[in-house]
Design goal:
about 180 residues; mainly alpha; 3-stranded mixed beta sheet; 7 helices; 3 strands; about 60% helix; about 10% strand; binds zinc ion
Length: about 180
């Protein structure tokens, strides 16, 4: 049931791609989210050989509630946005690579404002505040701005806006140095 919810969310927001979903499922290693020790391995691993992205492997929880769907949305966006880079020489972890995954998390939370999910999401944000890593701080900031006028635009349109905002942010920091 939650897997279906995941797919519906992707479809509703124009981020469903049959080939990528297939790839995602073929490269995921599922675990039970209740198994706390396994959470440490959660995420997308990029296998790079000779400077080229060869493969992505994802460690994600089985989808059986909104939190586990949210985590899958995040990792799926990583796979989706890097899918075209497979077998190419490309930079994966650009400084804005967390923006879109975090943005679509926010969209999901907004559409599913359950107490459980809000709590989880706030906790994540607090973690970022406590140990600020540039990529996450930037992602929180920019995804907030994107939420302000998001009206189900395509991911390409959202991404164009991301580039503009990142550029602005860079200039701003440069000027304030
Ligand atoms: Zn991420």
């Amino acid at each position: 049931m939650y897997y279906r919810k995941f797919i519906e969310f992707l479809k509703e927001h124009g981020i469903y791609d049959e080939e990528v979903v297939k790839y995602y499922r073929e490269h995921w290693e599922l675990f039970d989210y209740l198994d706390v020790e396994k959470r440490i391995n959660m995420g997308t691993n990029y296998i790079i050989r000779n400077g080229q992205l060869e493969e992505m492997r994802v460690v994600v929880p089985i989808m059986n509630n909104d939190i586990t769907v949210l985590i899958n949305v995040h990792e799926y966006i990583h796979v989706l946005t890097n899918y075209n880079k497979i077998n190419h020489r490309a930079k994966i972890k650009t400084k804005d690579h967390e923006v879109l995954p975090i943005f679509y998390e926010k969209v999901y939370v907004k559409e599913n404002p359950t107490e459980e999910l809000m709590e989880y999401h706030n906790l994540l944000n607090e973690c970022i505040d406590d140990t600020p890593e540039e990529q996450y701080v930037l992602a929180l900031d920019i995804s907030d701005k994107l939420m302000e006028d998001y009206d189900n635009q395509s991911i390409e349109q959202v991404n164009r806006k991301v580039k503009k905002l990142v550029f602005k942010d860079t200039i701003h920091k440069f000027i304030n140095k």
